[in-house]
Amino acid sequence: GTSVAPRVHTGEELAELDHRHLLHPFTPVGVSEQLVIVSGQGCEVTDSHGRSYLDGRSGQYNATLGYGHPRVLAALREQSEKLMTYALLGASNEAAVLLAAKLAELYGEPLTHSLFCNSGSEANEAAVRIVRMYHAMRGQPERTTVLSLAEGYHGTTIAMSAMTASPLLWAGCGPLPGGFAHVPTPRCAACATGAAHDGCVVPGPEALEEAILAHGAERVAAFIVEPVLGVGGIRPLPEGYLRAVREICDRHGVLLILDEITTGLGRTGVWFAHQREGIRPDVITTAKGLTSGYVPFAAVTMTSTVAEAFAGDPMLGGLRHGHTTSGHALGAAVALTVLDVLDTDGVVANAAAAGERLCGQLAQRLGGLPGVREVRGVGLLAAVEFDSFMRAAQVVGACRAAGVIVRCEGTVLSVAPPLVVTAEQVDRIVDALYAGVLAAD
Ligand code: PLP
To answer: 72-344, which class in CATH?
Structure first.
């Protein structure tokens, strides 16, 4: 037959088709023309009008190695030609086996076993089912409640919406499943309102213990927490918090799940953010940077104690959970390569150095400017909080016009470029923000 070259659409046509047919996650419809990205290379992406931008948000915090990475592309091509995948239900595939083994090596004992999913929400959802089934198999079927921080974010499935105490997820979505409860975020409530006040009051880890005791420890399965609240405003947990909650969980037989979907794999300048506190979780979830955004993929990694309990499942003698595409070989092959690049190319070390530069420059140049309420962050996960939603949006718009993509959620503008970002590119981002803040009114 004759081959027909694909029709090239103009920027205007794409914008129109986007508006007519595509639903966007958490994006108001028709407020402004959508940025339609058509290609990318390194830390830069190009839109449908041919304009290039420095991607100051790594897509949605996921493109950690940037765009068009030759080694990742080669891995994807090789795996797709060899075997696109083979399902793990009653069988296995080479890439998934090797990735599970690699993650075990990376975390070290006792985090030895991984289950693979396709998104962060699914990984957290699986973690909840895993901890509940684990307790049930150990003769404590009443241990079902999963506690999370009031300002945590864990995804959008129905159960993850219940676990995420956000009006955006709750309104009009009920009834939500029970078995979830929320613990005060370690953050001063008065600061959150922006009002002047004396003496901050920050709920500490004791708020977790109070919640465990209020529910009855014998009914609590797990506590899940992000080392840096992501959607909750890029807020690193106070130093010592994770160590304290680890100890509280142990005291009450409660499992600790760490959601490192945004913070893991080098984002904060170390391999995993929890390593700064020298603790080990019982279960850890990763996604986003695990495949650097090249393929949808997520992992739930757990201790041998948790994983090995499933051999004793009375119904199946195994884990009753998973998806058709769990451990998809394309994602697994990409993840294996990403892990190798992070290590051998010194990407985590670059994230640490570039992150120090980013956070330092933001604090130095933007701290104290009119309308800037706070600058915070760790590694290449930084935020500038403004006094108003309008101002944050204006700065985002000014950055875009200057060729730098950043985004805001409410009053919080977040900056999280690919981990391969150069010092010069960090400076470009900070320059754009600085000029944007000065121009905003
Ligand atoms: N957990 C955290 C900390 C996240 O930041 C996100 C996504 O932004 C999720 C879970 C949900 O992941 P996904 O959007 O892949 O479902």
So the answer is: alpha beta
